[in-house]
Amino acid sequence: MPTLLILMILAAIGYVLWDTSRAAAERATELGRNACQAADVQWLDQSVHAIGLRLCRLPSGWLGFERTFRFDYSYDGVERHSGRIVLRGRELAAFTGPAKARVSHLQPRSDATEDLESR
């Protein structure tokens, strides 16, 4: 009987850990997608990837988990850049990702530039 009770408690703890991990991944997905949309960049793979987990003290004073997620984005659809989201509980602790999208304008070539290149 005690073995069955221990197994049930362990299963409940495992479910709670899995459920909070899934909720954190969904929150990181939402934050990454919104950041890419705000910066007008392409969010690649439509997902985040968990790359770190550690214990930390939450603002409430309780022990909790700090989860780190990675996501990919592209300014031009060719080059891939990585962003990082750190969540403490459900709160955003750190973000590294796309800045405001930059558009560079091509300058028309002048005759002087062509003369220098031909030498």
TrEMBL record:
Stored InterPro entries: DUF3301
Pfam families named in the record: DUF3301
Q: Any idea what this protein is called?
A: DUF3301 domain-containing protein
Natural source organism: Stenotrophomonas mori
